[in-house]
Structures are given as structure tokens and as C-alpha cells.
Amino acid sequence: MANPQLEHGHIKIATEIWEALTAYRLPGEQMQVLMFIIRKTYGWRKKTDEIALSEFMVSTGINKQNVVRAINGLLSKKIIAVIKKDNALPHVYGFVKDFDKWKPLSKKITLSKKITSVIKKDNKPASTPIKETDNTDSRVPSKNGIPYEAIIKRLNEKSGKGFRLKTQATKSSIRARWNEGFSFDDFCRVIDVKCAEWKGNFKMAKYLRPETLFSATKFESYLNESPQQTQDPYEDLN
What we know:
Residues 108-140 and 229-238 have low confidence and may be disordered. The protein is built from nine helices and three strands, in the order H-H-E-H-H-E-E-H-H-H-H-H. The protein has two domains: 7-101, Arc Repressor Mutant, subunit A (Orthogonal Bundle), CATH 1.10.10; 148-223, no CATH class. It is mainly alpha-helical.
């Protein structure tokens, strides 16, 4: 039985934004992709995040072609912004919270009430749709449903290391935590939290490895840690 609780994590978002999203009609897959972007940004108390196409695929259940179509649809509506990086790396995605910049709906569709902007700071969206590329198509769940490759790729991207998927000890650690009920997003959270904390620390960087991050005694405690902040975590999110 599902029993979600605020203390297990929640997303802080301004009511005006939620009302704007409620009044703006988006196709189902575009809404799924947008919700995932918000989860990966506002859910981590930050404005942007590197997200690989395979992460969208794993979390939404949408195939690659439709993920790309949904992303370009959101770009054309100016609801998201994308910073295109080297093709070997995930692009950086951000939600454009200034809904006055969103492309107006068709004349046949009207908003239920006038929504005025509360944001003065300019969030510049991408001017044209970006053709997405992803050199890691294999980062989708394996036959037994465990996204080994997506998890290892996430760790390598965030840590700057080169762990191999074929290492049985690594796969065993991932499988053990997965079988305990932890999700792909849980693995991403642990990786991101500890990389943010340890990557620049000479003494601790060596522990950015599967046997430490995904261990039976450490994983859940890492999962419940809060990301380190260098500024007000809610700055410019309201």
C-alpha cells in the first residue's frame, strides 16, 4: 500500500506556477517529460540538471523517439530551456517558470482566469528546438527490469570516473538494493548527493564507487541526506 509522506521528500513550487500549468493544455507525454524535469530540478532545489534521454525513458516509460518529440514540443512552447552540450554528455534542462513567456494557447482554448506574472527575472528559453542525440541507447532497463547501465552511466557522468557494467560485484550491489525496493530515482539521488559532497574532496573522492555508494549499510542513509547547498536552496524558485 502506498503511503507517501512529506518527510520522505516533496517539491516546493509557487502556487501561481501550478495554476498556470493546470490551465495550460499539454499532451500527455509532454506533461510526463515536464514533470520529470521539474522533479529533477525543483525536486533537488536547483534550477537546472543534466538529464540523459535514457533517464527520461526509464522514469516515464516513453520510448526514445517520443521522448525527443515531447522535449521539442515543450521547447516550441517555451516551457523548458535546454543547453546543448557535447554529444557525449547529457544536455542541461531547466523549467521556464516565467509563464508569461510560454507560447500562447490556441484561440479556441482560453485560460480560466487571468494569470499575472510574479517573476521579474528573465529566464531565457532556447530559441529553437534542439535535435537530441544520445550515444547511450542501451541505458534502458535490462530484461529483469533493473537499469544497470543507466545507473552506472549516471555514476560515471557525475563522478568523472569509468566504472564498467560487466563487473559482477557492481551489478550485485545494484541488484541487492533494487530487490529491496529502491528505485532508479533513489540511485540517482544517492549518486548526485555524494558526488556533490565528495567529488572535490581529495580524501573522500575515492569513495565515489559502487561498493560504497550502493552498500547495504550505507545506501539508505545516503538516500536520506540533503544535498549540500552553497546558497539559499529556495532562491529564485518561488
